[in-house]
Design a protein that fits this description.
By secondary structure, the chain is of the alpha/beta class. It is about 30% helix and about 30% strand.
Length: about 350
Amino acid sequence: MIAEILSYYGQPIADLRADPEITDIMINGHERIFVERGGRIERSAARFPTAERLDEFVRQIAHNLGQTIDARTHPILDARLPDGSRINAVLQPVAIGGTVVTIRPAPHRHLSADELVARRMLTPAMLARIREGVEAAESLLTAGGTGSGKTTLLRAFSAFIPAEERIVTIEDTHEDLVPGERHVVRLEAALRRRQLDRDQITVGMDRLIVNALRMRPDRIIVGEIRTPEAAEAYVRAMNTGHGGSMSTIHANSAGETYLRLRDLLTSAAPAVPPALHEETVRANVRLVIHVARLRIGSDVRRRVTAMSESVRGPDGLHTRTLWRYVPEADNWEDSRCAA
C-alpha cells in the first residue's frame, strides 16, 4: 500500500527516490526541493503542485504507517518506510514557511570495506587494524556528525564478524546494519506515538539492549547511542562479557567520543564520579574511528579523520592515536610508532 501512496502522492519526487546517486531528499515547502548527490547539496527542478498536495503526501504516509500527524497536536513524523528509507516531516506552523520533509532513501546497495578503501575513506593499514580488532572481539565505536558515514563504516566492519557468531542488532530506525545471510536478530525501538488519542507503549533502546542480553548474543550492535539510558545499557552489556560490541555516536573528534559517552553515563548515573565513568568507557571501548565530511578542492568527501585505541599502561588506562588525517596532504599520518 505504501508503494502505491509513494507512487501517487509522491510522484513529483519519484525520479529522485530512484536515483542511486542521491543520498538525501530535502523538501523545504512544496516549491523548493534539494538533494544531496556525491556529498554536495544541489537544488532540484522537482516541485509539488501545491502546499496541500505536499501535506497530503505526508498525511497518507503517516496514516498507512499507523501513525498520526496533524498541525495542532502532533506536527512531527519520524518513521521508516517498508523499503528501509527514513522519513522525517514537520508541518506548519512549527515549520515556518511550509511543510518540511527530509527523506533518506535506502541505499540501492551497501559499500564493502574494500570499496571504502578504494574511495579513500580510510587506508588499507587502518582497515587491517579494524579487521583484526573485530575478529578479536574488541569493542568499537564509529563517531562523527550527521551524514558523515558512521553507519556506512559500521555496516562494512560487520562483515568481519566470524560467520558462526549470533548477532543482535538494535536500532531506533532499521538500517540493515548486518546485510547478507547471517545469524542475525534485528530489533527496532518503538517510539512513543500518539494515535487515536492514546499513547502507544514505548520500547526504548535501553530496554532492548537489556533484553538482548537474554537472547544469547555473541555480539550486540547498536545503531546509535543517543540517550543516557542507552549509553548505560550499552556499557552494561560490554561489562557482562559481550566483547566485540559495536555502535555509533555523535562526536566532533575521536578524543571527544570518550568524553561524549562519559557525559551520557554521568547523566544516567550522576552519583558516580565522572572520572569513574570515563575509566569505564576507556576500559570497554577499545577502538574509536572518527569520520567526517570534508571539502577537498571543489568536492566533498568522507574521510576517517582519526583512529584511536584505549590501552592499559603502567599508569593505568590511556588513549593513543593510531592514525590522524592531514587535510593539507589529503593523507594520513601513522602515529603507531611514535606512540
